Amino acid sequence: GALVLLVLPQAFIFGSSHLFFPRYLAPGHFFAVFVIAMGLWVIQRNRRGRLTTVLSAIVSFCVVGASLVAATHMRATAVDYTKATRQFASQIASIERLAAEHPDSPIIFHGGDPIEIEAIVSTRRFLAVGPARHTPMFLVFPRYAGRDSDPLGAKLADPLERWSAHGGEGFLPLSQRPQPAGDDCIGLAFPGAHAIPCRHTVSLYGLRH
After folding, report:
1. Cα separation of 37 and 64, whole Å?
2. DSSP characters for 39-95?
3. N or C end of the chain: smaller count of CB under 10 Å?
4. What are the angstrom distances between the C-alpha of 145 and each of 112, 149, 153, 161, 209?
5. How many other C-beta atoms can be found within 10 angstroms of the C-beta atom of residue 107?
6. Prediction pTM value
7. CA nearest 88: which of 19, 190, 194, 198?
8. What is the Cα–Cα distance from 123 to 205, expressed in whole angstroms?
9. Cis peptide before 197, with omega less than 30 degrees from 0?
């Protein structure tokens, strides 16, 4: 019972593709296997003749079937994640190449969807340890329009709006951008961003894509 209570919330949170996105391979995908295995364990502890033997055979068959399904699903998901990781690495390489070709151009992050805060922060941190680490980085994140109806979005938008206006998390305040700004910049377009007024643009895909 305690193990079920431990695994069930994790299966719902980390294995759900509708609520929190399928970002983890386990334990969510193995929850069905876990439950069936627990059923088999209960049956084995309460052996009561022929009926128990039949039930044990059925549960054993279900365990094997569920294990194969879960393993197949996990393999397919792992392939998808590998492709996404390679795509992200390619995007980082493109940004670094642009920064090397245009050393006087700042990197401007453009966002609009607060759920992308992790993608924005991780991209900046990757760039901060590579060849583009000395390039000034700014964040353009307008006030989140869905504040009244989306409490979670509003909470995630708070730091993004603060970094945009005042700097932080490695971003410089927009007020420190050399003027006139013009379009001589490297724009990073995250989901939710609108027009990107930069001559060089790289589109990045976040959690919803």
Report:
1. 10
2. HHHHHHHT--SHHHHHHHHHHHHHHHHHHHHHHHHHHHHHHHHHHHHHHHHHHHHHH
3. N
4. 9, 9, 10, 12, 21
5. 26
6. 0.72
7. 190
8. 11
9. no
What does the pLDDT profile of the chain (209 residues) look like in tens digits? Answer: 555 666 666 665 555 554 445 555 555 556 666 666 676 676 667 666 655 677 777 777 777 777 777 677 777 777 887 888 898 899 999 999 999 999 999 999 999 999 999 999 999 999 999 999 999 999 999 999 888 899 999 999 999 999 999 999 999 999 998 777 778 899 999 988 888 889 999 998 754 44
- DSSP conformation class of 139: E
Whether residue 27 has a cis bond before it, omega within 30° of 0? yes
Hunting for tokens 């792992």 — which residue is that?
78
Residues written for the chain: 209
